[in-house]
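Below is a filled-in request sheet from our internal design queue. Each sheet records the structural input a requester submitted and the sequence that came back. We keep these sheets so that new team members can see what a complete request looks like end to end.

REQUESTER: design group, bay 2
PRIORITY: normal
MODE: inverse folding
CHAIN LENGTH: 235
BACKBONE (tokenized):
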């Protein structure tokens, strides 16, 4: 009885997920594979992730090409990068409540892997790859459009997909202020799993922010983002 109840609850969660996603699978095994991390067992979602990454990049390129007809190639490339990076994809996965559905091994579960950005982003790409295999590219593109179009509509045209460090630098240059200084204040973890804390200092405005990330670049971007948001009232 307990096993049947668990299976029933799992099916309900998957059905609700498909409704949020706007797509129902004719091959449920593809959905299960897409939600299975390699720590759980085989088959896992790495091959579907590879496929979904290509489908996503192609679909997003087509969408921003149509949605932003006046933007040159450089801006389009930055926009695409903003939509398909790990943070953006993991945020979408959390909104779709995929953290409740991903199958993880015991080690990953103990370490909170269901909310790890890399695992969530990979699983979302795997889902898109699974949709492509379950139907076709047009159907996968339709799902991607439903997910990403609201985000595109909310973009501030002034930023045009620029990353936080670029936005912050251009703002300060426009105000003829000193450029930001970035300093690594802490590193932790083993060599292959290091975490960085970077401080962004705006001496002219007496602003200091700290960003964290799995690379120095990501930590700098996060610190720049926080600094840019803090000085917005000065614009």
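RETURNED SEQUENCE:
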């Amino acid at each position: 009885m307990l096993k049947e109840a668990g299976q029933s609850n799992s099916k309900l969660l998957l059905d609700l997920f498909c409704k949020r996603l706007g797509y129902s699978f004719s091959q449920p095994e593809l959905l299960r594979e897409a939600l299975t991390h390699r720590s759980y067992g085989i088959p896992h979602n790495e091959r579907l992730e590879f496929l979904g990454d290509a489908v996503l990049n192609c679909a997003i390129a087509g969408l921003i090409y149509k949605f932003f007809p006046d933007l040159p190639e450089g801006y389009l490339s930055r926009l695409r990068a903003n939509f398909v990076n790990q943070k953006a994809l993991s945020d979408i996965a959390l909104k779709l409540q995929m953290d409740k559905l991903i199958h993880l091994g015991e080690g990953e579960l103990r370490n909170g892997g269901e909310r790890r950005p890399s695992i969530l982003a990979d699983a979302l790409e795997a889902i898109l790859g699974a949709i492509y295999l379950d139907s076709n590219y047009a159907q996968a593109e339709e799902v991607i459009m439903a997910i990403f179009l609201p985000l595109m509509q909310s973009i501030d045209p002034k930023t045009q997909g620029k990353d936080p460090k670029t936005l912050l630098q251009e703002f300060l240059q426009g105000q003829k202020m000193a450029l930001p200084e970035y300093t690594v204040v802490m590193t932790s973890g083993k060599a292959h799993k290091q975490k960085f804390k970077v401080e962004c200092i705006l001496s002219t405005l007496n602003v200091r922010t700290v960003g964290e990330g799995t690379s120095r670049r990501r930590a700098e971007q996060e610190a720049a983002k926080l600094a840019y948001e803090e000085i917005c009232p000065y614009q």
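SHEET NOTES:
- Residues 8-153 form a domain with the Ribonuclease iii, N-terminal Endonuclease Domain; Chain A fold (CATH 1.10.1520.10).
- The chain has a mean pLDDT of 89.
FILED BY: M.R.
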